[in-house]
Recover the amino acids of this structure.
């Protein structure tokens, strides 16, 4: 279908993009890779008067090593993130999740920051970012601020990014040497996950020193399975320990009911997938 | 005389049976061709439709002022702006003489009967401007209660069309006792209740969406002497007839062209409101117009398929010999009786007995009107539903008797030496060999090894259980003998037409009334003509789909093109040869009786003298030296009316793994051995079988059109209507046994629908077989992980689909469904 007419601006700096955002306010919508916005426009679910395209801002692309963190530019395409050796070494959970994200075309057009800013609770990057304790760098007219992952996801399609702000980069603390698994449950390959579990675990000499687990599509935002994390921390790695801990995966979750499954089924899936993800992340 | 076609017969490779690459594929795959939407005419205007968001409502007012004032809008028209010139969408098959059939205006002016129905059309200079203005049309509705659930609608609780007084459209009954083709089913059931086995089940055929690749598109040019419609349709000839019959425009003033058409699966076997509106608007304005639907519109308003409840009662002796089968169907027509409409379940009526020798059979189908999208043919049309029911319940019988499901089938099926066989439904099956196809399939499958693995997994309590599913299907295709259609009260015949034009340069034009939409007719028909006439494959051009070129035909559906259209072609080619014979005799100065025709050449017996058919075509073109009283033409045509349906069959075996922890199902192996008679092009057949299998598997596992409580199509995009891709399927193993059909010259049988008809029950049987030892005997389609898991984990589960879409876009109504999942229109058959 044909989108409603809109005006288009493609600034080359973050400052110009912020200025455009300030100028057009409510009438503007930011486009990153367009993989979620374009369907919305084409189905005429939204008809912004202005589209601000971040695609020409070179400073928003790329991945760099910044000491204790890996920094991923918001406009870096998934395909680049997924094949980046720094990400694989220090934030393996992200690499694993990107492997399963949509299809090759979407991975080449869609962007890391765009997907996180869209905040679809069934998106594949929120739970890994949450599990890894990512920091979201957000630029606004008054300068730059950093928001922790726990505070970034506010609600369905809602984040801490203000209406006059732009997500510029995501800092991911290094989890070098941590095992990782993204366990995604779908009916067909191109589907959003019904439930997915992002698990990254550090094991020292047979003991789980720390586990960080994020859940996809188990609520209106990605959530941490903190009860599981707590139950695993400090325990000797064994199938029974993992099974007992994973049984708590849905504690406090409020998953949706839809065509692919009701909330109770999702709660059940979360426990099974968490067990499998932790087992896989710990080399099982 | 020049020799253009001379090829020694012994050097010519036979074309029939050769895996020719399809000659049409380059242009189809690259898209450098004439899809309807590619057609642009001088001064052409574009249409956008305004559709009802409500399932059932009175239209109280339509304000078009703002839309008319929008940029480059030429006109905004509603149903009230048209009179009879708008015509109606026809039902060609009143299945009973008292069928209740609501009038189907392409654009009603008073009341809408399903969400997606057109209430106004905007005409503008560009498609974007038309769409912009469509948003400005202000329609006021008074909502009416909607008849949505099929069973409730059958009880007339809420009326889909209040003026009709009932939702019940027609009750169609076949009874073998009354027809004299078998015994009384009630007696068989009564006896089985005392000393045999009675299996009673209710199966759900969920509603499906054909989801062809090319959206429907129509271009109308009213500026010529003949008004022309290009349409992405399977049925240009029927569209032409129906336009003439319902709009008052003489048939001779109408030309309909189906250019290259990108798939249909029955979904383009329709006369659509969009075609009729485009026709009326183009003629009203005197300008060419184009309408191309969006994918959302296609899913919402192009006709759907299936949607039945099947109540089944199978009576058998204790050893598993079936003594009677009773079938009671409820079939959802949607808001209107579509062109085939209630005929779809009737096409299944003769197939519930399948390959078996049942002594008694009763079939009753109640068609029901609801306030949902209309339903009609979808790949297999009636026969997949029948095959599913019988193949599922034969597995249940096997479980009850305690034997392998293949054993129960063998006990009941028609033996190969019993053909031709007249069934309890009154059909005469001409040929087949169920034993041979089954033996070959078992061998390919490694049946005994997989059964051993299944046993081992059960005994060890493996998390992943293995199930084996069987489907020994047959179907009736090659639609259809006209006399039979007449007896069934169908509004047309079932013949097909072909003609062969012998060009002066020795090339051959073949015209067929069967209009391809992806099947490969151009290649397969070229092979038939090349062989039969003895000319080069490359020298044959197949023309179709334009009523000016192909003036006569009944189009493509029901696996009819080869077995009916191909036979017409064979007969036309044979006439060419016979017309050429006296001319050849004259030119060779020989007696007609001394001529033999082989390899494209008449030769005089016992001499080296001869003439190629192309040379005779040239001689006819110049016409300088022809026998007296012989017309200067060897062109010929033939119209063929089949004497019988055509009965392909096959044995399909499927192995499914079920993850008992999550309910996830995974296909492990799929083999099939189909008997489709003689094969013209093995590569095309493989494509038909593979594609057909995926479509049938998709019904078993993925696809379902779901409506919410308000009558809104929840699965209205490919986010929620799950079509599989190559990533979701495995490599199928396909083989064939051959029992040539005895009712057509080439011994062929239809293959277009076979894979779809056969595969669905094979998959579901496998899933159920994997968990039967856990107390499960049914899982409603599609077998979602949730349904499978619930079936394993408790009674009363495995049923309904939650009626909400997955929200992925932050604006608009989709996200709003998240908080309040409605109940769907489907009900659980349970476990």
């Amino acid at each position: 279908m044909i989108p409603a007419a809109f005006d288009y601006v493609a600034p080359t700096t973050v400052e110009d993009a912020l200025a455009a955002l300030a100028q057009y306010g409510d009438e503007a919508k930011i486009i990153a890779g367009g993989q979620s916005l374009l369907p919305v426009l084409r189905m005429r679910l939204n008809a912004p008067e202005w589209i601000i395209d971040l695609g020409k801002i070179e400073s928003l692309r790329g991945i760099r090593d910044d000491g204790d963190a890996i920094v991923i530019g918001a406009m870096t395409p998934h395909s680049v993130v997924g094949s980046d050796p720094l990400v694989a070494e220090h934030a393996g959970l992200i690499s694993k999740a990107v492997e399963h994200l949509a299809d090759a075309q979407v991975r080449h057009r869609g962007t890391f920051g765009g997907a996180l800013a869209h905040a679809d609770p069934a998106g594949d990057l929120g739970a890994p970012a949450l599990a890894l304790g990512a920091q979201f760098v957000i630029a606004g007219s008054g300068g730059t601020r950093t928001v922790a992952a726990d505070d970034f996801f506010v609600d369905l399609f809602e984040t801490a990014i203000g209406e006059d702000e732009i997500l510029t980069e995501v800092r991911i603390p290094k989890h070098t040497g941590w095992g990782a698994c993204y366990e995604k449950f779908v009916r067909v390959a191109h589907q959003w996950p019904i439930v997915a579990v992002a698990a990254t675990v550090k094991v020292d000499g047979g003991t789980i020193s720390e586990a960080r687990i994020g859940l996809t599509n188990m609520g209106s935002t990605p959530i941490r399975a903190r009860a599981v994390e707590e139950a695993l921390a400090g325990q000797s790695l064994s199938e029974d320990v993992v099974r007992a801990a994973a049984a708590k995966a849905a504690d406090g979750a409020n998953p949706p009911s839809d065509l692919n499954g009701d909330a109770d089924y999702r709660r059940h899936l979360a426990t099974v997938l968490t067990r499998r993800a932790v087992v896989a992340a710990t080399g099982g | 005389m020049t020799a253009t076609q001379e090829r020694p017969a012994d050097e010519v490779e036979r074309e029939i049976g050769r895996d020719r690459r399809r000659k049409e594929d380059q242009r189809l795959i690259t898209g450098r061709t004439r899809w309807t939407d590619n057609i642009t005419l001088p001064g052409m205007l574009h249409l956008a439709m305004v559709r009802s968001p409500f399932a059932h409502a009175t239209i109280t007012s339509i304000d078009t002022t703002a839309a008319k004032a929008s940029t480059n809008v030429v006109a905004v028209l509603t149903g009230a702006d048209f009179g009879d010139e708008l015509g109606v969408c026809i039902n060609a098959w009143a299945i009973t003489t008292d069928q209740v059939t609501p009038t189907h205006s392409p654009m009603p002016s008073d009341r809408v009967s399903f969400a997606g129905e057109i209430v106004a059309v905007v005409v503008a200079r560009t498609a974007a401007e038309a769409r912009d203005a469509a948003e400005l049309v202000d329609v006021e509705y008074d909502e009416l209660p909607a008849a949505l659930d099929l069973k409730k609608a059958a009880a007339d609780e809420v009326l889909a069309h209040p003026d009709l007084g009932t939702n019940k459209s027609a009750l169609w009954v076949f009874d073998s006792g009354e027809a004299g083709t078998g015994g009384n089913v009630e007696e068989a059931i009564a006896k089985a209740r005392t000393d045999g086995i009675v299996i009673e089940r209710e199966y759900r055929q969920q509603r499906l969406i054909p989801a062809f690749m090319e959206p429907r598109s129509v271009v109308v040019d009213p500026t010529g002497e003949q008004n022309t419609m290009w349409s992405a349709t399977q049925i240009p000839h029927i569209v032409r007839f129906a336009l003439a019959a319902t709009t008052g425009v003489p048939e001779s003033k109408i030309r309909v062209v189906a250019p290259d058409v990108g798939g249909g699966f029955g979904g383009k076997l329709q006369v659509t409101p969009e075609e009729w509106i485009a026709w009326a608007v183009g003629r009203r304005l005197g300008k060419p117009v184009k309408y191309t639907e969006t994918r959302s519109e296609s899913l919402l308003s192009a006709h759907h398929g299936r949607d039945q409840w099947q109540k089944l009662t199978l009576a058998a002796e204790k050893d598993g010999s079936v003594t009677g089968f009773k079938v009671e169907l409820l079939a959802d027509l949607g808001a209107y009786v579509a062109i085939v409409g209630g005929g779809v379940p009737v096409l299944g009526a003769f197939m519930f007995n399948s390959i078996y020798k049942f002594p008694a059979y009763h079939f009753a189908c109640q068609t029901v009107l609801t306030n949902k999208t209309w339903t009609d043919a979808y790949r297999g049309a009636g026969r997949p539903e029948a095959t599913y029911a019988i193949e599922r319940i034969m597995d249940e019988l096997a479980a009850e008797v305690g034997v392998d499901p293949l054993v129960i089938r063998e006990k009941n099926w028609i033996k190969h030496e019993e053909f031709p066989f007249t069934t309890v439904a009154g059909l005469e099956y001409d040929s087949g060999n169920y034993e041979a196809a089954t033996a070959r399939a078992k061998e390919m499958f490694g049946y005994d090894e997989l059964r051993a693995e299944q046993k081992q997994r059960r005994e060890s309590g493996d998390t992943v259980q293995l199930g084996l599913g069987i489907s020994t299907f047959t179907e009736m295709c090659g639609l259809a003998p006209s006399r039979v259609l007449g007896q069934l009260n169908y509004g047309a015949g079932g013949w097909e037409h072909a003609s062969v034009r012998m060009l002066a340069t020795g090339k051959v034009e073949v015209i067929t009334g069967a209009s391809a939409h992806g099947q490969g007719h151009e290649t397969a028909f070229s092979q038939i003509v090349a062989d039969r006439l003895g000319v080069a494959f490359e020298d044959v051009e197949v023309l179709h789909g334009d009523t000016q070129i192909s003036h006569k035909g009944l189009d493509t559906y029901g696996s009819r093109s080869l077995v009916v259209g191909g036979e017409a072609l064979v007969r036309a080619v044979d006439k060419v040869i016979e017309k050429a014979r006296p001319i050849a005799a004259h030119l060779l100065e020989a007696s007609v009786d001394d001529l033999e025709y082989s390899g494209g050449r008449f030769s005089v017996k016992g001499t080296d003298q001869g003439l190629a058919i192309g040379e005779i075509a040239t001689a006819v073109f110049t016409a300088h030296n022809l026998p007296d009283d012989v017309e200067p033409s060897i062109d010929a045509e033939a119209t063929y009316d089949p004497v019988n349906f055509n009965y392909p069959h096959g044995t399909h075996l499927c192995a499914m793994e079920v993850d008992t922890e999550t309910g996830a199902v995974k296909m492990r192996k799929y083999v099939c051995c189909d008997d489709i008679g003689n094969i013209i092009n093995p590569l095309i057949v493989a494509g038909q079988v593979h594609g057909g299998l995926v479509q049938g598997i998709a019904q078993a596992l993925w696809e379902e059109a779901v409506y919410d409580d308000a009558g809104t199509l929840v699965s209205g995009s490919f986010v929620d209507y799950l079509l599989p891709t190559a990533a979701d399927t495995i490599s199928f193993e396909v083989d064939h046994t051959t029992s040539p059909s005895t009712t057509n010259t080439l011994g062929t049988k239809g293959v277009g629908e076979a894979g779809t008809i056969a595969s669905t029950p094979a998959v579901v049987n496998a899933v159920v077989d994997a968990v039967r030892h856990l107390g499960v005997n049914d899982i409603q389609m599609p077998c979602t992980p949730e349904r499978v898991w619930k079936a394993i984990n408790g009674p009363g589960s495995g049923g309904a689909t939650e009626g909400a879409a997955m929200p992925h876009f932050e604006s608009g109504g989709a996200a709003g469904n998240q908080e309040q999942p409605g109940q769907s229109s489907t009900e659980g058959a349970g476990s």
Remarks:
- The domain at 58-173 of chain A is CATH 3.30.465.10 (Uridine Diphospho-n-acetylenolpyruvylglucosamine Reductase; domain 3).
- Residues 263-281 of chain A form the longest helix (19 residues).
- Chain A touches chain B through 37 residues (CB under 8 Å).
- Chain A has three domains: 7-56, 58-173, 179-281.
